[in-house]
Amino acid sequence: MPITNRTAPRNGPVLPSSSLLRPLPLGALRLAGGYWGEWQDRNAHTILQHCEDWMERIGWIGNFDAAAAGEPFTHSGIEFVDSEVYKLLEAMAWELGRSADPDLASRYERLVRRVAAAQSPDGYLHTSFGRPGQPARWSNFEWGHELYSMGHLIQAAVAQIRTAGSGPLVDVAVRVADHLVAVFGADGRQAVCGHPEIEPALVELGRATGDHRYTELARLFVERRGHGLLKPIEFGQEYFQDELPFREADVMRGHAVRALYLAAGAVDVAVETGDAELLRAAELQWERTVARRTYLTGAMGSHHQDESFGADFELPSDREYGETCAAIASNMLSWRLLLQTGDAKYADLIERTLYNAVMVAPREDGRAFFYANTLHQRVEGTVPPEDEVSARALASLRAPWFEVSCCPTNLARTLASVESVFATMTEHGLQLHQYGDYDIDVDLPGGGTAGFEVRSGWPFNGEVIVTATKSSETPLELRLRVPAWATTAELDTPDGHHRVAGGTSIAVDRIFNRGDRVTLTVPNRARITHPDPRIDALRGTVAIERGPLVYALESTDLGRAINDVVLLDEVALQDDGPDDVRVGIAVREAQTGSPLPYGAAVTETTFIDTVRLVPYSTWGNRGPSTMRVFLPTE
Amino acid sequence: MPITNRTAPRNGPVLPSSSLLRPLPLGALRLAGGYWGEWQDRNAHTILQHCEDWMERIGWIGNFDAAAAGEPFTHSGIEFVDSEVYKLLEAMAWELGRSADPDLASRYERLVRRVAAAQSPDGYLHTSFGRPGQPARWSNFEWGHELYSMGHLIQAAVAQIRTAGSGPLVDVAVRVADHLVAVFGADGRQAVCGHPEIEPALVELGRATGDHRYTELARLFVERRGHGLLKPIEFGQEYFQDELPFREADVMRGHAVRALYLAAGAVDVAVETGDAELLRAAELQWERTVARRTYLTGAMGSHHQDESFGADFELPSDREYGETCAAIASNMLSWRLLLQTGDAKYADLIERTLYNAVMVAPREDGRAFFYANTLHQRVEGTVPPEDEVSARALASLRAPWFEVSCCPTNLARTLASVESVFATMTEHGLQLHQYGDYDIDVDLPGGGTAGFEVRSGWPFNGEVIVTATKSSETPLELRLRVPAWATTAELDTPDGHHRVAGGTSIAVDRIFNRGDRVTLTVPNRARITHPDPRIDALRGTVAIERGPLVYALESTDLGRAINDVVLLDEVALQDDGPDDVRVGIAVREAQTGSPLPYGAAVTETTFIDTVRLVPYSTWGNRGPSTMRVFLPTE
After folding, report:
1. Complex prediction ipTM
2. Beta-bridge mates of residue A31
3. In which band, very low, low, confident or very high, does the pLDDT at A2 lie, cut at 50, 70 and 90?
């Protein structure tokens, strides 16, 4: 039974007006150190400033000042760099909602003022269009990213509403949204943006303000797409999902970030309008895309050329694109579907994607990022200069900033609000989807209170200890996800011991007294993972995983290139802790008896060694290396 | 011992001033039907007209008229479409050198007049640069393709010299070349073109005219490259081979056509200047590139994104780019190295590349072409409209014309002169490198005459019958290549019977009398080919080849998609002739027990059938299909 979510001024990024599971209010779950606590700190103290400094230095923030001044100016950066400033503002807002750091608050306010000053009197706001010497407004829906950029502005304003209730950025965003309603409403211009994003943004603004015109405009944008309103481009209409209406598609295709943002917006529209068919289309697309077009890390996007999904089972490791933003977008979709359905498979994918496809992006110091994320680095990357803007396509290590730099700011807003996907509540229940180290204190919708301390050492350890910090007063159903990667798990409660299967969830339903403890023990040991044999690129290989972490072999540890290795014996997998997972490796030299690498027969010679693997998300932190996740077997 | 090649007015595209093997003069080898005779006819009667009609219709020829008129005009097509007109002119010249068709001759002369009229008084000739409203001359070496286009003009003029001795296009090209010498000579502008091509063109013009200034300018262009004269682009300096001097590189990298044209030019310069180090660099690059970066078909280029070589053993079937022009360029290089070294491995690669990577391009009617050539078509292509220009990147069947249409005209010039790589001569010898059906009649450099009829039914049959049509008067060494794909072969001569190994050559040295017959019998049966296990994309697969032909499985024959197939039993390969090669196939359905295509174990169910394979070069001729060359094994 879906529950109705009253407008909650303090909340995370997504708050459907009804859902099976309800997001916790902002502040009800607080990280207490551990993996995510440390990364959220690094985001607050390093990444936010890093993004701001770069965008100040290369003029992306200055674009707003120049636009406000009213004189013709040379715009810095590609046409959608406004959106990077907005994503930073969103990240800052989430962080301010938690910490109220005065320095951050004043930086945020200054930045909002500079953005606000560039708004046109009619509400339009974009620094690349509509001024003398610039293309006209709405002259290029295919590539202009106008609605996309304004979508991110609206998302940033929603974060201000949800953390502060109101503020000057909210006023700016409402004027933007009102302008869009006037231009693109039912009787207005029949158009969609080449890059979806305005759709979820408008629904969320509708939810946060109670103004249904915004939701209705989002609905129009979702329904209009798929009818060829966008002009054909080299990559075809499917590049921007305009070849088929969303509700008729059964798999994602085209540009991965676009497809995933659109799906998130479609779910939002479906929920607000009670459109079960539209919601079902999103579930089907998720299901088939995850089954056939998703990497082991949860990454999506097989082609560099058009940043797109490949065909079914087209999942090359070496040419994986796997854009960081697509992983973030995948979690946006999975979270929305988890709220609606309660199905643990969505939480499983969020876990897999967060630890591997998202967190591979930042360098350990938070000052450089991957944009594309390969599972097989064939040649050592180059170290990008710390003070130059990098192109995204080059084989390089993590770079401090990019010409198209969507990923660092997207990561910043994700880290600033990451705990929002950890737990949910129902009338009399609390659901723990992601583990880590955190404290929960929340009043449940049906009455009663939930206070718990969760400690787990996740993702490196497998024991989740949940201790009640309050009496629940009334019976409370505490539900814990048992990860799909666990073949089995053990649950110890005040009422006894249970054995549970992986890929499910288990509930403890009782009146909790302060000090009551529930322990979920998941065997977190290195394991072998086999790919579906229909994945051509992975035939004859296996991967090593440990808990939610995918592991990788780096040349740094092997002492030579990793392209020619063979995993010697699956049984020889050794696990002496998360930092000491080892395998037996042979290095293969082949002879085909031909100048070409093809022959009637192939003979091989091998050289043998034992070598340590590292969590995939940390690869490249020790300097240039070659790396592979899937290891050929004998 | 290299021999010196006197200037020969009638010759094919390449005539080094010295070489171990000497090209036959134009007309000394004439096709007599068979595979190549039919395709050369189709080229003469269909493809040439097809190219001319398209370029007339979409204004690429009209650019020259507009440029000649002197008024500002809107240029049609991308900035290097001049080169397509030049490649057509080159193809027409080779065809006229053989057939003297009056209609073709008058079309050729009209086209030359229109080109000539656009030349500037100082010799510069390009329709995209230097006029009011156009970019300035030499303002964009990275992408402008000015020298590239003029290179193709010069090649077309060389074809006029070699077929007709002289003509108006030669005058135009000499004025162009003199202008380039003035602008880019030793004391001139220190620059190179982003796309090599001017280098082999200038050497050939130097050879054909005896003017060494052109060769010297080519030498300067080769030597200047690799020192960062081109501005950095997103794909890096290696995209246009400007990150490392040619003589220091040991493998090809970057844009495949550029790398191969450059290598061809470097060999030409090395030969004309006696630069053994430069020649050795080209041999090393060929060797390593063929061993690690070449497809089974001979195709080169692993990435769509930048049309580039991949890393070693990065040879995905499904994302193969394998541009038709790169295959043609590979043969340009192999032919040059064959002439210098006499090593049969170069002739072997020419054979493999011609039958598979080049001849997959044209549709069987010669009115549509592949640009990129995949070895694994995962989804059925769309049928491009017959009257519209196609984008090159879309998954489609062969298209009549492209926005960037380098491949059809390149194929036209290749087919018009294809027999030039079939045989060579030495002082007292004749070497047959490629088989087919043709007649040779030539006076040898050391005296004596060679007259032979060659009949083979190649590539479908394996018996090559060489019959003397003249007495050789003096002893003559007739040398026959034994293809590397043959494990063994039989040679019958008037002097007896011999058994010979594949990948070698065998000579018959005697005075030939009219009617003397030499028969080489090569077992032309379907065979299994194994890929080097270091090719990740091909692990656990095999291909089927028959003689020089690579075979493919098409969904048209299987009656369902081919992505999930498994080759059931290698022994079950049946060969009842070139049109009836069959294998046993299972279709696999896999279960991982997870929403993702990865799991602790994988179970499979299969469905079994027997199915016919087709020569890879003919795939797609029966309409949209899915296709794969490498078949997974059990």
Report:
1. 0.92
2. A438
3. very low
